[in-house]
Amino acid sequence: MSGGPMTEAMYYVLLALHRPAHGYQLMQQIARASRGRVQMGPGTLYGVLTRMEKEGLIVLSENDGRRKTYLLTNAGMEALRAEYSRLRAMVRDGAWIGEGGTNEKTQL
């Protein structure tokens, strides 16, 4: 992976692959993990899966001709953890907004 921020779709696919899954299962797990906020269609999903497979974040673990089952690689888990840490840091940086205060760093 390039090391930059990942797309929301990539993040949720990696999150959903905490256990091997095929496309339809992934769409359901993504909707569940995002509490219904993210509804990923097949076109988006398979585009993301192809990209992540090329980047070594996932592998095809089974292909019975009808369904392709994907599995998270060690590199995929590392990328997911790094993105999770990056997102947590962003939320921490903006926590003052939820507290109703001001950010001293932006005050001149």
Q: Structural class of the helix and strand makeup?
A: alpha+beta
Query: Into which percentage range does the β-strand content fall?
Result: 5-15%
Flag low-confidence runs.
Answer: none
User: In CATH terms, what is the architecture?
Assistant: Orthogonal Bundle
Largest sheet: 3 strands, antiparallel
Say which CATH homologous superfamily is assigned. Answer: Winged helix-like DNA-binding domain superfamily/Winged helix DNA-binding domain
Q: Overall pLDDT, averaged?
A: 90
- The CATH topology name reads Arc Repressor Mutant, subunit A
Strand order of the largest sheet: 1-3-2
| Alpha-carbon distance between the two ends | 38 Å
Shape: elongated
The H/E string reads: HEHHEEHH
CATH class: Mainly Alpha
Organism: Ruthenibacterium lactatiformans
Protein name: PadR family transcriptional regulator
InterPro entries: Metal_resp_DNA-bind_regulator, Tscrpt_reg_PadR_N, WH-like_DNA-bd_sf, WH_DNA-bd_sf
Domain Transcription regulator PadR N-terminal: 18-81
Keywords:
elongated; PadR family transcriptional regulator; WH-like_DNA-bd_sf; WH_DNA-bd_sf; Arc Repressor Mutant, subunit A; 108 residues; alpha+beta; three-stranded antiparallel beta sheet; 3 strands; Tscrpt_reg_PadR_N; 53% helix
